[in-house]
Amino acid sequence: MQRDTRQRRAIRRVFANAGRPLTPDEVLEHGQRIVPSLGLATVYRNVKALADDGWLSQVELPGGGLRYELAERPHHHHFLCRSCDLAFDVHKCPDEVEELAPEGFEVDGHELILFGRCAECR
Amino acid sequence: MQRDTRQRRAIRRVFANAGRPLTPDEVLEHGQRIVPSLGLATVYRNVKALADDGWLSQVELPGGGLRYELAERPHHHHFLCRSCDLAFDVHKCPDEVEELAPEGFEVDGHELILFGRCAECR
DNA sequence: GAAGAGATGAGAATTAATTATCATTATAGC
DNA sequence: GCTATAATGATAATTAATTCTCATCTCTTC
Predict the structure, then answer these.
(1) What confidence score (pLDDT) does residue B120 get?
(2) Angle CA(A48)–CA(A73)–CA(A61) in degrees, nearest 5?
(3) Interface contact A53, partner B, CB < 8 A
(4) pTM of the full predicted structure?
């Protein structure tokens, strides 16, 4: 059976408060403010388990590793800051993007990434 | 001074014929049909040099390493096949995407990636 | 509060992509 | 054709992300 540990609760709380995709390192950093002893392996284990459970989903953005975000959220896209490398949510989506594919291609999803500098970094 | 080697010519030809972004491994594979002795290190070196010269540009798509494509091309986007993992060009672009960013964010570029199955894989 | 079993944490191991090393080869300029 | 020197190819080394190992800890249940 699966146990409800301090660590897992902390990791869930980190995502619930984040409102944007997080890398495992970011989860570690924020999680250690709640459970200081939290280790990176535990973050990887739990993030993976939460994704398997369908509570988190993977976000693959250019440059480096996977990020994770809460799964049950309305369709949205991402903004990647070139300065601080944080990812942010973009809640608007251009319509009918999936119509743009070449003839004969079957589209089952899309990702739109805006690049630039976030409000903090400007 | 920079020399015009068989290997570099082959790599340039591979990109000129590709019409889509290529990984270093793909460049190696196609390049070896022209120069069979071509090595992976040479591909990395030349691809990097050609990118520094502005002849190639880097394309970062989800999942794994960098890809490269001819630099001087009209604005376009990419389709990533979930089955064969090849990247293809998409020549249409939804208008005004960069307007979608949150208040206070400065956008200087964007990437739209369509996911699905390419014509071959269907 | 004791016992069993899943979870943790620290660091080692793995993996994949990329870069460095270095003896050998091939190109550009004479 | 000859020379010097940049480029190559094979492989080792590096790097960063992720996973594994295992002794220890701590939930859960009784």
Answers:
(1) 95
(2) 60
(3) no
(4) 0.91
**Inter-chain CB proximity A115 and B108 less than 8 Å:** yes
Rounded-to-integer distance, Cα A78 and Cα B74, Å? 24
Are B11 and B43 within one domain? yes
Distance CA B119 to C1' C22 in A: 45
pLDDT of residue B65: 85
Cα atoms in the Cβ-side hemisphere of radius 13 Å centred on B101: 21
Q: Return the structure tokens found at B36.
A: 């069979």
In a domain, B99, yes or no: yes
Q: Are residues A58 and A95 in the same domain?
A: no
Distance B2 CA to C30 C1' (A): 18
Which residue segment(s) compose the domain that B45 sits in?
6-70
Contact across the interface for A101 and B109, Cβ inside 8 Å: no
